[in-house]
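Hi L.,

You mentioned the student needs an example of a multi-chain input paired with its predicted structure. This one should do, with 371 residues in total across all chains.
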Amino acid sequence: MSAWKASASQALRRRQWEILSVVAALSSMWIVFTSALGKMPQQGSASGCARCHPAQEAEPLTPMGRALELPGTNATLSSHPNLTFHKAAYTYTVETHQGKSTYSVTDGAHSITVPISWTFGEGAQTWILERDGHFYESLVSYYPSVERLDITTGDEGLTPETLEEAIGRRLSEVEVKACFGCHATNAVINSELSLRTLKPGVRCEHCHTGVESHLISEALSGGGDLESAPPALGRLSSEGISNFCGQCHRTWDLVVRSGWRGVSNVRFQPYRLANSRCFDGTDHRISCVACHDPPQTVVRDEVSYDVKCLACHAASSSNGLVASPGKEEGCPVAKSKCVSCHMPRVRLPNGLMTFYDHHIRIVKPGESYPY
Ligand code: HEC
Ligand code: HEC
Ligand code: HEC
Ligand code: HEC
Ligand code: HEC
Ligand code: HEC
Ligand code: HEC
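Structure written out for the whole complex:
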């Protein structure tokens, strides 16, 4: 976190030495505006933001930045051009040719084929399909863990009676807006679905609202007037950050109110984390952004998290063991790879996806899943 901050502010300082071309700033303002107005749905670069905030440059390439993919950008399907799956009387085929994919289902006698326009998920993929003015969630999805199609998570209980139903679950208008709202940027404007303005993935402006006025002020002042800088999310408490990320990763409150119990809630990190004894809503060392930099791909190296745990469970000087705050005794078991034991990996009931349990705890052999 501090490295991220340091490099961002260094870069910003460096930038202040440059004489910023008003023309360049205006053009980036234009890009943001036109995309906001829907004239130019924009993909690829981090708008103009990375020019001045180079530390965040990689964001569009992260899984969050690619939570939704458009045709032509789906490397997984391009490298698996012919996928099939059988479910009861139906056979599914996902075919990709020159970047364009189609989703077909047949009962042997008849078949329905729909182009894939919206790929949701950067790892496991589900497709939102449009047919006769309705949106469907594909009944089958692609899972990298097994490199093949299987039933979409949560839809295991559906038994289609007709070919039409076999395409997938028909989504209500509210659900469609929610899917696009969480997986894309500028997809919902004034509570209406706005596919014209959509930018695929979770991008800068989704988290930093108010950037349009930030850019105008930057442009007009040549970069000097920072009064319009978007509200700094860094000022939120750990609880505030959990709720912020929880807009999409689901908040503690939502999970409790909805009664989402059992193993499937392992993917709702704000909820799981808040249930740990480690969690303190006012201590930034346990905030989501203490362990994750949103514009970076999640670090898949367990050792690298030791330092995050040790920020609170400081090593005692005498024996090098790990102690709880205010306690003399340490971790009697190990000095590194803390998360490998205390944030166990949990497989979803379908066996196709695994998540690290953010309910940090001592895991007792044979214990049942807490909550
Ligand atoms: C022309 C340069 C420039 C561009 C382009 C630019 N910014 Fe900034 N931004 C700045 C400067 C300078 C600051 C003030 C930095 C500070 O206070 O340390 C800032 C501040 C911010 C902050 C507040 C940081 C904080 O901790 O207070 C955020 C968030 C931010 N910008 C996001 C964005 C996003 C998102 C974009 C693209 C849509 C963007 N910026 C485009 C120069 C720019
Ligand atoms: C607008 C919705 C949204 C918000 C807000 C959001 N996320 Fe995400 N995030 C997603 C989606 C969607 C994915 C799934 C990406 C995928 O795999 O397709 C994701 C994935 C992730 C991942 C896994 C990515 C990887 O590199 O493997 C991490 C870590 C993450 N988010 C952390 C955060 C943190 C921390 C915050 C708050 C600062 C946050 N997210 C806020 C939507 C969001
Ligand atoms: C409230 C925000 C939200 C909504 C609504 C939402 N997603 Fe997601 N989605 C996420 C987040 C966050 C992740 C990453 C964490 C995870 O995997 O649970 C994710 C992950 C995914 C993944 C990756 C595989 C997986 O299951 O982890 C797929 C596929 C996906 N979503 C499809 C959809 C589809 C299709 C819809 C609409 C029917 C939808 N999502 C609605 C936030 C959302
Ligand atoms: C998933 C949400 C999310 C996305 C996407 C995102 N940010 Fe941020 N950003 C945050 C949060 C949360 C913080 C506060 C983190 C902290 O200070 O600990 C932050 C902090 C910042 C800061 C202030 C950093 C500092 O010096 O403290 C800047 C500038 C910034 N982001 C720019 C960007 C730009 C540019 C992009 C796109 C390339 C982007 N962000 C994408 C959530 C996001
Ligand atoms: C104390 C450190 C820590 C905190 C705090 C933390 N995480 Fe994580 N998170 C991890 C670790 C460790 C992983 C797994 C990394 C790996 O694969 O090696 C992870 C993985 C993830 C993933 C990817 C899915 C998975 O299970 O592999 C998402 C999404 C995520 N975290 C979101 C969040 C959100 C949202 C918050 C705040 C509510 C948060 N995290 C707080 C340590 C943390
Ligand atoms: C914000 C500070 C903080 C951070 C960061 C933190 N912890 Fe904790 N942790 C605590 C506190 C406080 C307790 C409760 C101590 C007590 O009650 O004796 C605790 C308790 C624990 C316990 C005992 C829980 C139980 O079930 O009895 C374990 C195990 C633990 N932490 C491991 C970790 C690991 C592993 C990490 C890193 C992934 C971590 N902690 C990060 C503050 C923290
Ligand atoms: C190989 C698995 C493993 C690893 C790795 C591990 N622990 Fe533990 N830890 C345990 C077990 C098991 C216990 C419970 C021991 C008992 O109660 O007899 C424990 C206990 C703890 C406790 C509670 C001690 C108390 O006073 O109640 C804390 C805190 C803790 N570990 C933190 C950590 C931290 C921090 C790390 C990384 C530096 C770590 N652990 C690495 C397995 C592990």
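You could point out the following to them. The chain has three domains: 2-63+202-221, 69-171, 236-356. The radius of gyration is 23 Å.

Best wishes,
N.
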